[in-house]
UniProtKB/TrEMBL annotation:
Gene3D superfamilies, per the entry: Arfaptin homology (AH) domain/BAR domain, Pleckstrin-homology domain (PH domain)/Phosphotyrosine-binding domain (PTB), Rho GTPase activation protein, SH3 Domains
GO biological process, one term: signal transduction
Gene Ontology molecular-function annotations: GTPase activator activity
Domain Rho-GAP, chain residue ranges per copy: 389-574
Name of the protein: Rho GTPase-activating protein 10
Length: 786
């Protein structure tokens, strides 16, 4: 049973039971007061916890926003770009969510805490004050009655009458106060039901609003989440293919490392110990140097480097070789030694020590010493062994028989082309198909002897066994370029153009195969072979580089993208002719050149990503062009050296300032005012630059110089396109563009800044120099050497 009502008539009787009912009401209000007090305290703790959670979430979002994935190579796939951008998307999602949480926290204070505090102070506090008055009047009233009743009857009547009047007035005042107190007690008991619950309702409404906003944010995020899951799956699939290729290359190199040594711009390079002579009492010491020699220029670079001291790089030295002499053990107490004499230092010979006798012989051969080997430091590309498969009538027959069987028997088989057959069966089937005598006898459509996975594996094995990939070595680099950059439309147009440059037989077979793969992808709901999955399977099958390197394997993902474009645009690419006329090259840039991409990981915030379309032309003064030699081509640009096609040569070069705008020795800023049309640009690069004129680049925050425009991507003779400037040692340089450093190892500077002690850095395309007492990295294409 609840509280008993307080009757106003009982105020005059003021019975013990009436007092018990009043105490019950007071106890209930005291319990309510304590509850509200605790609730306010808990509410404030909730707000504090919410703010702490929000601060932690915001810090988490901030960490997500600041982190950037580095990538291997010179460009990313679209999937990788989306994955990289996903951290910022997650950060923005959390930020929006925390904004709603902050609104909710503020609403808790306004809708719950303040109303409850007001109710407790104004209503319950008022009842407490009324109780104090009631208790005080009760004490006064009954004390006065006791005193009045103790008056002697012998007192004068006037005195007694006056006492009676006083007692009666006091009793009337007590009754009025009692009535008001009883009324207040019952009013508060009823008022608290809505005065207390209404703020709670507002609080929960704010909470529901917060969760609803979260739900709406989640709905908006759902589409992006679905796309991101596809990006992640595509990247995982490409990773699996890349990993197997990398492991295969690693095992090949492990078995025979000498046959897989990369071609280099240097005739010889490697570590040698160099004898450094000291004053007589101290003798001499041997210091390990990384040495590089160009035979054509007879130029020798040595750089001290010690692995055990944390890989500290010392100051390098450059000299020109005069002669090299082998040292015998009877003249020095060390093995594997030889002397090198510099042309510009007559009589001052350096004694060097190789790691082994074989290495000493190789150095002697490269340096023109007396003893030489029949093999060279730089080995030619190891050719792939030619299989018996050929791109002939028999090959077309094999292709058509396999495709017909697959589309008849297994177009809906899950994992079609991904599930491999038994190797022995695959080899036996392929041998029968490639044999003129047995080819016509093999019935793939009706025979149960050959599983679908055996047929698909045989088809892939045939394509991999061709002497040259179906999309050719010559156009491999050209096909990769559009996959790395440009808009989707420009990619399709570029691939469209390149497919029609393939030899007729290659294009015909590719047409048949891609048409079949398009049909396979149309049944992806049953066979689970989406366009992306087919790209992973057939990318390495239809395309492969001529040289096996890790850098080439990192481009596998772009091969997959090329195949995806072929499948998705089969009708346009193979049934229509491409635009035979190339658009005009992009207009001359009025912004400073791109800073070269750093090889090391950056901790700070990075600007836009580098892409694969570069300004592949240079302009140097006539006086500089004669100083460039064939050996000066940068390491890693092997394709540009070996490719028979000028188009391939143009697109294979690495990014960096050597292929952008450079100011060489003796040039002046004003010399760049008269642009010369670029004659040596690859048509493919022209195509892509026109299709995507605003491709992003990884460059510092810069301001265009004034009043004269910066250098433009201009032309060199074709034989000189891939050649950088000579190494820089102990020079001065002047800044021709402003640059803001985005890494602690770089220098910030304004136009006209003078750098001291400038020399070539280990970082390709960067110089090291000193400015205002601070030493750091400088983009080579931002300065002019003095």
């Amino acid at each position: 049973m609840g509280l008993q009502p307080l009757e106003f008539s009982d105020c005059y009787l003021d019975s013990p039971w009436f007092r018990e009912r009043i105490r019950a009401h007071e106890a209930e209000l005291e319990r309510t007061n304590k509850f509200i007090k605790e609730l306010i305290k808990d509410g404030k703790n909730l707000i504090a916890a919410t703010k702490s959670l929000s601060a932690a979430q915001r810090k988490f979002a901030h960490s997500l926003r600041d982190f950037k994935f580095e990538f291997i190579g010179d460009a990313e796939t679209d999937d990788e770009r989306c994955i990289d951008a996903s951290l910022r998307e997650f950060s923005n999602f959390l930020k929006n969510l925390e904004e709603q949480r902050e609104i909710m926290a503020l609403s808790v204070t306004e809708t719950l805490i303040k109303p409850l505090e007001k109710f407790r102070k104004e209503q319950l506090g008022a009842v407490k004050e009324e109780k104090k008055k009631f208790d005080k009047e009760t004490e006064k009233n009954y004390s006065l009655i006791d005193k009045h009743l103790n008056l002697s009857a012998k007192k004068k009547d006037s005195h007694l009458q006056e006492a009676d009047i006083q007692v009666e007035q006091n009793r009337q005042h007590f009754y009025e106060l009692s009535l008001e107190y009883v009324c207040k007690l019952q009013e508060i008991q009823e008022r608290k039901k809505f005065e207390f619950v209404e703020p709670m309702l507002s609080f929960f409404q704010g909470m529901f609003t917060f969760y609803h906003q979260g739900h709406e944010l989640a709905k908006d995020f759902n589409h992006y989440k679905m796309e991101l899951q596809i990006n992640i799956q595509n990247t995982r699939n490409r990773f699996e293919g890349t990993r197997s290729e990398v492991e295969e290359l690693m095992n090949k190199i492990r078995q025979n490392p000498k046959d897989h040594k990369r071609a280099s711009q240097f005739t010889a390079e490697g570590y040698l110990y160099v004898q450094e002579k000291r004053p007589a009492p101290f003798g001499s010491s041997w210091v390990k140097h990384y040495c590089m020699y160009r035979k054509a220029a007879k130029k020798f670079n040595i750089i001290p480097f010690e692995h055990r001291s944390g890989g500290k790089l010392g100051d390098g030295e450059v000299f020109f070789l005069k002669e090299c002499t082998k040292r015998h053990t009877d003249s020095i107490d060390r093995r594997f030694c030889f002397d090198v004499e510099a042309a510009d230092r007559p009589g001052a010979a350096l004694t060097m020590q190789a790691f082994s006798e074989d290495e000493r012989k190789q150095w002697l051969e490269a340096l023109g010493g007396k003893e030489a080997l029949l093999h060279s430091f730089n080995r030619a590309i190891v050719p792939r062994p030619e299989g018996s498969a050929q791109l002939d009538k028999m090959g077309f027959t094999i292709l058509r028989k396999c495709i017909s069987a697959v589309e008849t028997r297994g177009i809906n088989d899950q994992g079609l082309y991904r599930v491999v057959g038994v190797s022995s069966k695959v080899q036996r089937l392929l041998s029968m198909l490639m044999d003129v005598k047995t080819c016509n006898e093999v019935d793939l459509e009706n025979s149960v002897d050959w599983e679908v996975k055996t047929i698909t594996s045989a088809l892939k094995q045939y394509l991999r066994s061709l002497p040259e990939p179906l999309m050719t070595y010559e156009l491999h680099g050209d096909f990769i370029v559009p996959a790395k950059s440009g808009s989707p439309e420009s990619r399709v147009n570029a691939i469209h153009f390149l497919v029609h440059k393939l030899p007729e037989k290659n294009k015909e077979m590719l047409d048949i195969l891609v048409k079949h793969l398009t049909n396979v992808s149309n049944h992806s709901k049953q066979n689970l072979m989406t366009v992306a999955n087919l790209g992973v399977v057939f990318g390495p099958t239809l395309m492969r580089p001529q040289e096996e390197t890790v850098a080439a394997i990192m481009d596998l993902k772009f091969q997959n993208i090329v195949v995806e474009i072929l499948i998705e645009n089969h009708e346009k690419i193979f049934r229509t002719l491409p635009d035979a006329t190339f658009p005009e090259p992009v207009s001359l840039s009025t912004s400073p050149p791109n800073a070269p991409p750093r090889q090391s990981k950056r901790q700070g915030q990075r600007t836009k990503r580098p892409v694969a379309v570069y300004n592949l032309c240079l302009e140097l003064e006539d006086g500089d062009s004669a100083n460039l030699s064939k050996e000066d081509t940068p390491t890693g640009n092997l394709d540009s050296l070996s490719s028979p096609s000028p188009t391939t040569a143009a697109v294979h070069g690495p990014p960096g300032p050597d292929k952008n705008h450079l100011l060489a020795d003796g040039g002046s800023f004003g010399d760049w005012a008269s642009p010369v049309p670029c004659q040596t640009r690859s048509p493919m690069v022209q195509w892509l630059n026109t299709q995507s004129p605003t491709t992003p680049s990884c460059s510092p925050v810069v301001t265009p110089p004034s009043p004269k425009p910066p250098p433009s991507p201009l032309s060199l003779p074709a034989a000189m396109v891939d050649k950088p400037l000579e190494s820089v040692v102990n020079r001065k340089a002047r800044a021709v563009y402003p640059c803001e450093a985005e890494h602690s190892s770089e220098l910030s500077f304004e136009i006209g800044a003078i750098f001291e002690d400038v020399q070539t850095s280990r970082e390709p395309g960067w110089l090291e120099g000193t400015l205002n007492g601070k030493r750091g990295l400088i983009p080579q294409n931002y300065v002019k050497l003095l």
